[in-house]
Amino acid sequence: MRGASWHKYPVKAAQQLTAVLLVALLGIVPLQAATQAVVFPPPHTTAYTHEQEIQIGREAVAEVARQMQVLPDDDPVARYVRSLGERLVPYVPDSDRYPRFPYEFHVVNVKAINAFALPGGPVYVNLGTIQAADNEAQLAGVLAHEMAHVYERHATSQATKEGYAQVGLGILGALLGRTVGGSLAQAAIGLGAGSLFLHYSRSAESEADHVGAIIMYKAGYNPIELAHFFEKLAKEGSGGPQFLSDHPNPGNRAQAIDALVRSLPPRRYLAGNSERFAEVHQLAMGSAPGSTKAGGQLRPASQPDSGAAPAAGSDAPYGMGYETFNHAAYQMQYPADWQIVSGDRSSDVVIAPRNGVVQDAIAYGVIIREQEPERRNDIDAAMHELEQELRQSNPGLRVIGHDETIIVNGARGRSVDLIGSSPLPDPHGQPARERDWLVALPESSGRVRYLVFVAPEQEFDRYRPAFEQMLRSLRLR
Hints:
Layout: H1 14-25, H2 31-35, H3 50-67, H4 76-88, E1 104-108, E2 115-117, E3 122-126, H5 127-132, H6 136-152, H7 154-161, H8 171-178, H9 202-219, H10 224-236, H11 241-246, H12 253-263, H13 275-285, E4 322-326, E5 330-335, E6 338-342, E7 349-353, E8 357-358, E9 361-362, E10 365-371, H14 379-393, E11 398-408, E12 411-425, E13 431-442, E14 448-456, H15 460-473, E15 475-476
Helix pairs in contact: 6-9, 6-10, 9-12, 10-12
């Protein structure tokens, strides 16, 4: 997290600030005086213009509308969220150098607790997030946090660093697979709807907390409510794994927000709740969010709509030979009768057999993604970091044994098996047990390439030869 140097008070304003603080002792701080001294950090530099980011966002909005259960704009819950978001917009900086993006706000009708923002201004919040919020200030905090990601240009900045600028506006596919917080990428779903991999870096989350808290403060909401919302999800565990994995804790989140609040001029805040929030919250609690697209997940167009996964005793999963997949970062073979159900050569990828994705979750297949660990060039620390995230966000998931060293074509990595719940039912109608083989390999950039091979526990040994052949064929570039 950036230091307190972000908040510099002009020397000429010292007398004014002193007056503000004296008035604060009486418990009364004028809004204008309380917010004049608050300084925003500048957005990140990207290879994309302001207009290009807006265009990317508009294209993505059309895809979201096609793939996700978005509430109509005239829905009372959607109207309320839009009005709440529009109340925050004027407090986002707007200048000739950094023009404000045209923010818009939507509600996704799914029960998973999550929210995400697209480049250029579109912000989405799941109905489950509204249900989970205790008051209006917490919901405003979620919106402000996502607006901060847009303001900081985190998505296109990350894309620029990773070389996606070379494909111009073709970044859309990469962004949908990487930076929408898992809401549009069917990846890591075999371990719980996006809870396996972190989509924003911890530094980006720290910045979004910081900027979001300032937006809340300027709008009159107590920023500490944002921290309270994250704390609530962390304590509940089962309610918000996807939100917490897509918004990884940068460390001491509540303390950092509290320290920021203490550094700002004291002021009176709006009531955390409102009559309108109470009405909309009651409407949301009475709704039945969709579950067929769990967590707001995308069902890729090439993926079968539903149907049973490959049955035990069917043809071998690698009976038709292998095809080669050329990714920008690696090359790997996969069974010829499998398909790439999500991603492309520039993004995270999911490869699965026909009907290997059941109810928007991977029952059979492999997930291949890249991760930026807290400590670069330390594969052991990266593996432990990932396992810790898994245990925190998936209480039913457990590691079998210990990490082991694995060498794949000269790359010295780590390997471990895990047991969790499969999307497939057992004979009694309960979730079957699932085996997941996690392999982490270091890349020359200091990042880590993760592969997760997934199959029901009773069939994992039948699929392991195919998994091992895929791994043996992997060549990192």
